[in-house]
Amino acid sequence: MNKAASLLENKKKFLILGCGFSGSFFAKTIRELGCNALTSSRSEKKDPNSFVFNSECGKVPDEKIFDGVTHILSCIPPDKNGNDPVLVSLKSKLQNLPLEWVGYLSTTGVYGNTEGDWVSELDQPNPFQKRSQNRLNCEKKWIDSGLPVQIFRLPGIYGPGRSTFEAIRNQKIRIISKKNQVFSRIHVADITNAIIYLIQNKASLKFHQIINIADDEPCSQIEVIKYCYDLLGLKMPKPILFEEAKKELSPIAKSFWMENRRVSNKLLCKTLGYKLIYKNYKIGLKNCFLNS
To answer: How far is residue 230's CA from residue 69's CA, in Å, rounded to a whole number?
Structure first.
């Protein structure tokens, strides 16, 4: 944990919209720092810190949920029409709150395919997939909302309970070899701690509206899988060439392999000074291995 994170004032109240893997990790961490954090769920839960928000059914949070809210983190993807469910249902409500900060989790998919070249926040987005086009559209809507929003572009997310180890243990692993193909990734703890670092140091850092959160070492999927097999003390099966494998891949899985880029974290780590907890997949996966 960054020391800066522990200095966050505990009178802050966070609403986390969309409490999946990243949102849940963020909520848990921010509570450990003494902040109040309420999380949205699509249906009623017994958890007193949970509230219902389901735009598909028109279920919006009660008025009292918004009392005293200072920070909002939205982790909700575009809806089936490509619109942002939070802005469609809650934009005017949010615009009337005295918010200090809003965060939106997006994807590095908006950069499209760069044939393995590096991409940074200075590069023009060029989304290849429809879902990435929708994400870029939602980013623009957030920026146009006039809210104090920061957009975080994320590559492949992993962490304890959601990593290559689970795929190996559940025998759902596909070991595919594609020449010169690389992927960028980020440990869920670094997403949370980078965001907390930026909120904590907001007054002293230049404000950047769009920030990549990625580790230092993009690499091939095979390297990652091999490392996991080694840690488990198992022999990795022989890889299948992509040209063979693609006949059996789902459209979503296939699209994952159709883009090749290295995501730069220089803005976050060099310019803004965030220190990664898990600089590369080896350190990050060791953490997953010890906590699985």
So the answer is: 46
